[in-house]
Write a structure and sequence with these properties.
- The protein contains twelve helices and twelve strands.
- The chain is α/β, with parallel strands linked by helices and 329 residues long.
- Strands 3-4-5-8-9-10-11-12 form an eight-stranded parallel β-sheet. Strands 1-2 form a two-stranded antiparallel sheet.
- Helix 1 crosses helix 2 and helix 4 crosses helix 5.
- The longest helix has 21 residues, at 235-255.
- 47% of the residues are buried.
Amino acid sequence: MQQRALGMQGLTVSAQGLGCMGMSEFYGAPDEGEALATIGRALDLGVTFFDTADMYGPFTNERLVGRALAGRRDEVVLATKFANVRGEDGSFQGLRGDAPYVRQACDASLARLGVDVIDLYYQHRVDPNVPIEETVGAMGELVDAGKVRYLGLSEAGAVTIRRAHATRPISALQSEYSLWSRDIEALVLPTLRRLGIAFVAYSPLGRGFLTGTLRAFDNLAADDARRQRFPRFAEENFDANLRLVEQVEETAREKDVTPGQLALAWVMAQGDDVVPIPGTKRRTYLEENVAASEVVLDPRDLDRLAEVFPPGAASGERYAAAQMDALER
């Protein structure tokens, strides 16, 4: 797989990464054996960039990823995140970006991952009660201590990104980006490009909606978080969004690719500074996603997709109201 630079500090990753969250939580029952096999298969296919966070599970996803990569640590770029505080019972306990918590969270992640250093360490969400300079300053101290190599932010706003980057160099910003989530194009992406910060796109397949495999709200399992946490999957929005996906399916048939491959290729075509990290917990879908790296979209394809999915086309917000408040701070 081709490589792409993440920022200007020397970090290089595969042009497509693997989001590991769903292997432990949110999208149905975990299957540890298949998850471990999927990570191993990703390595064999040339994926070197793996994404997790302390909150996934909670805490179990880091342990899973650490075990899966233990024998091949030198081949990979390992990214994890802090700031979303959760209890052992799974409860959500708010955000923390204060310096003592940054240090505490990093040490805990290192232990769970079973590594000496984290390649890319993100603040998962910006804590509105702590100056970003304090948070990023503490993250920079982790770099100085040899516990972290590169720094990142997630879902931060343009002003915060500039302040953070002035404190310590930021290599990557991670936010949701796909055909149906294009809001970062207005302010965030231009800011990143002015500063030389790369963009990591999570949920590039619209949490699975853009693959065309979901045909009705009732296809979602009772314990699937998309039923409760993501309004675009709600019954009142589902059919309208499905009609948009059906237009993507038409273009995919013409190119002899799957809708998911087309949607993923669109993200990868947005620039060499954009690296998607589609999440999956099964080898079959992983192989389909990786094959999207070979899909070439011409200007006509890109224009057609942009017409179907202009910014704001999707029905419903991408998160529930409380979670939307934590975006682009």
